[in-house]
Task: structure prediction
Amino acid sequence: MPLDRREFLRSTLLTAATRGGGPSTAPAATAPSTDAEAVVALIDTNVHLFAWPFRRLKYDRTSALAAKLRRHGVTQAWAGSFEGLFSKDLAGVNERLVEECRREGEGLFVPIGSVNPLWPDWEEDLRRCHEVHRMQAIRVHPGYQGYSLEHPEFARLLEKATARGLLVQVALELEDARVHHPSFRFTPTPATPLVSLLPRIPAARVQLLGSWQWMRVAASRALQDLPNVLHDVSNLEAVGAVGRVLDGTHWSLPGRVPVERLMFGSHAPYFPVEAALFRLFESPLTRPQLEAIMAANARRALARA
Result:
């Protein structure tokens, strides 16, 4: 059964009202009378907490971001830390993140630890993420930390994270390179090295965040054949883009991506949550496709951790 725009918006409003995050004008939550009116779960796999290093963001306070996400029906948000981009003390970064997720959001946020494979003793940061904080995933920011996915230490990190059953999120792009601070040297991070790396680590699971600029090159088409590469929709551009990447008709992206490998991600608070929502309901998706992208694929990704 297709889930049209009106039904989608009604479902997210019902979710927000049920959890107390909706505006005062939201309709009262009532028991749905049909499957079509059932509340739709929404998991945001790409948010960051704390301050973006280069300017203030409207929802950089965790309480404000939590209210914003709930207002749009988000039931769970995977949260990394902007502090993880440049800090030399990632153990402290991850401890603060875990505490913030406990203190704010009433269970909304799932902490995703930061690991930098170029820092000394990064293996200890990885161990603490898994054994101390009980995290199910980690997030890396190679372009902001000066390495490519061809770096041998990234391969070691992926191997060790996989041995612990962790999902590895690779944030390829957080900000358009054209608007970076002029004193900051950003290292472009194509995803294509994964084509040769992942067959050597077949149990690895990688989610690419903000990947679509790098998926435009012809060499990236081989990534579509790798079942352990997942994507978010945060910077997917063009009208009807989600549907187009599913059926292989996007005019600037080669190949097609199976629905099982797409997950909702907003890149909030840097991007508006509404932008990612629009990407979903402007495409002619079926209800099973929407439910997979909105929550089912994310649940499956963490269930294996």
Observations:
- The chain has a mean pLDDT of 84.
- The radius of gyration is 19 Å.
- DSSP finds ten helices and nine strands in the chain.
- Residues 5-17+40-303 form a domain with the TIM Barrel fold (CATH 3.20.20.140).
